[in-house]
Amino acid sequence: MAAPGENLRINGDRLWDSLVEMAKIGPGVAGGNNRQTVTDEDGEGRALFKKWCEDAGLEMGLDKMGTMFARREGTDPDALPVYVGSHLDTQPTGGKYDGVLGVLGGLEIIRTLNDLGIKTKHPIVVTNWTNEEGTRFAPAMLASGVFAGMHELDWAYERTDAKGKKFGDELERIGWKGDEEVGSRKMKAFFELHIEQGPILEDEGIDIGVVTHGQGLWWLQVTLTGKESHTGSTPMPKRRNAGLGMARVTELVHEVAMDYQPDAVGAIGHVEVYPNSRNVIPGKVVFTIDIRSPNQEVLDTMRARIEQGIAQIAEAMDIGFEVEAVGHFDPVTFDEGCVKAVRDAAERLGYSHRNIVSGAGHDACWINRVAPTAMVMCPCVDGLSHNEAEEISKEWATAGADVLMHAVIETAEIVE
Ligand code: HGY
Ligand code: MN
Ligand code: MN
Description:
Layout lengths: L11 H12 L16 H16 L3 E4 L5 E5 L9 E5 L13 H17 L2 E2 L3 E5 L13 H6 L5 H5 L9 H7 L15 E7 L4 H5 L3 E7 L1 E10 L16 H17 L6 E10 L9 E10 L2 H22 L2 E10 L2 E2 L2 H14 L3 E6 L4 H5 L5 E6 L15 H19 L1 E2 L1
Parallel strand pairs: 3-5, 3-6, 6-14, 7-13
Antiparallel strand pairs: 1-2, 2-5, 4-15, 7-12, 7-14, 8-10, 8-11, 9-10
Helix pairs in contact: 1-3, 1-12, 3-12, 8-9, 10-12
C-alpha cells in the first residue's frame, strides 16, 4: 500500500513556465538577470510572485525586512508551519535560477497540492527572503540574518550601496517594507531548493544533492591608502601605490586558500580604485576578500594569516591599511531529521542522490539556527552560477522540486 502521497509529482512544465516568466523581469545584458535587491526590478518580481501566490489562494505576510511569507492553511491552524523558499534577488550579472528555483519550487508544491485537493495538518509557508545576495548591500543573507537574530534591524536598514543609498530607504521606496516583526514567526522546519552552483552533481551524473553541511564564510573589506601621484613623472622608488598593494593581497589570498585544498576557497570580487584615472597612481583602493571553508579551524587560520599578511605588505610599501569584517557565518551542519526527509524523498522517487556540502551561502544557513533546516540541490550546467550563462534543465528542476515537495509534505503531514 503506497504511503499517502507517495507517488506525488509536481508539474514540471508549469514550474518551468514560471521560471521563464520571472526571468523576464530585470533582464541582464547576456541572457541572465539583473534583479538586484530593493531595486524597481526587485519590486516587479515581488509583485508577480505575490499575484501568483494569491492566485493559488495563499495569504501574503510581509515583515519589516520585506521578506514575503505566503501561507497555505493546514487543518490544524495552531500547528507550527513548514516553511519552504529561497530568494528572488539576483547578482548584477546573475542567472535565472539562483534563488528563484527555490521560491517558485515552493510555489509549485502549493499549486500541485491545490490541483489534487490534498490537505496537510501543518500550514505551509512559501518564502522570499530579502537580499540574499548581499551584492548591492553587504552582507549576504541580510534578511534571514536579521530573522535569525544575527543582525539588528536598524543596522540592516543602515547598510549603504555604492551610491550611498540606504537599504531601509530603498526598501521603503519600492513599497515592500512590511509591519511584521522580523523573526516573530516560529517554524516546524525550513526547506530550501537551490541549484548547486558547482560542478559535482553534473560531473557525477547525479540528480539530487542532499545537503548535509554548508561552508563558513568571511567577507573582509580592506582599505589600502597610498598616495595619488602622476603615473609618468613619479620615480618608481617614490611611489606609494595602493593598487600594487591590492595586487599583492590578491596573490596572498589565493596562496593561502591553495594551502588548504580541497577545503578552502578565496578570491576578491569587489574592487573600488580611487581616483580610477588612467594617469594617476591609485591613492586608495577598497576591496572585499571572500574566503570560505567547511572547516572552522581552516577558516579562522586563513583569516589570521591573511590579516597578518596585509599588515606586512602595507608596512613594506609604506601604505596605510584597514580591515573590516563585513560578512560572516560559521560552517553549518543541517538538521539530521530534515536531511533524512530529503534523502528518503530522493530514494522514494527513484532519483540518484549523494550527500554534498554547499559551497555557496544560503538563507538556510541562517534559518538553521532557529528551526530544523535542510536543503535540496539540483545540478547546473558546468557548475556555473553568478554568471548570466547559468543554466539548468527542466528535468533537473523537476526532480529537485519533486524531492522538495516530498520532504515538505512528509514534514507537514498529509491529512487523509
Ligand atoms: O555568496 C553566496 O554564497 C551567496 O550566493 N549569496
Ligand atoms: Mn542563491
Ligand atoms: Mn547567489
